[in-house]
């Protein structure tokens, strides 16, 4: 579910998220989600990042390659 309007100041800046490497994979994931609050909608500096996917859409790798070409 994606909100139509969101106040950017309420979003977590991913640059502030810190997860230690001495945790198990499951614990690192849980800690990341706890800190970021919404892994599909967050900030990175002045940018708002909204992550969406579709069942038959391109992979993340394909999207990144397209952006860099």
State the gist of this model.
With 69 residues, this protein is α+β, with helices and mostly antiparallel strands. 30% of the residues lie in helices and 12% in strands. It is built from two helices and two strands.
Number of helices: 2
| DSSP strand content | 5-15%
Low-confidence stretches: none
Largest sheet: number of strands, sense, barrel closure: 2 strands, antiparallel
H/E series: HEEH
Give the CA-CA distance, first to last residue: 31 Å
In terms of structural class, how would the helical and strand content be classed?
Answer: alpha+beta
The overall strand count is 2
Apparent shape: globular
Widest β-sheet, arrangement of strands: 1-2
Quaternary structure? single chain
Report mean pLDDT, rounded to a whole number.
87
User: What would you report as the Rg, rounded to the nearest angstrom?
Assistant: 14 Å
Please estimate the helix content: 25-40%
Characterization of the model:
- The chain has 69 residues and is of the alpha+beta class.
- It contains two helices and two strands, in the order αββα.
- It has helices at 25-36, 60-68; strands at 41-44, 47-50.
- A two-stranded antiparallel sheet has the order 1-2.
- A hairpin with a 2-residue loop joins strand 1 (41-44) and strand 2.
- The longest helix has 12 residues, at 25-36.
- It is globular, with a radius of gyration of 14 Å.
- The termini are far apart.
- The relative contact order is 0.18.
């Amino acid at each position: 579910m994606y909100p139509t309007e969101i106040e950017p100041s309420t979003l977590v800046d991913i640059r502030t998220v810190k997860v230690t490497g001495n945790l198990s994979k499951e614990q690192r994931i849980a800690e990341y989600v706890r800190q970021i609050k919404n892994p599909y909608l967050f900030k990175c500096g002045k940018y708002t990042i909204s992550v969406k996917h579709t069942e038959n859409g391109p992979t993340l790798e394909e999207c990144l390659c397209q952006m860099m070409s």
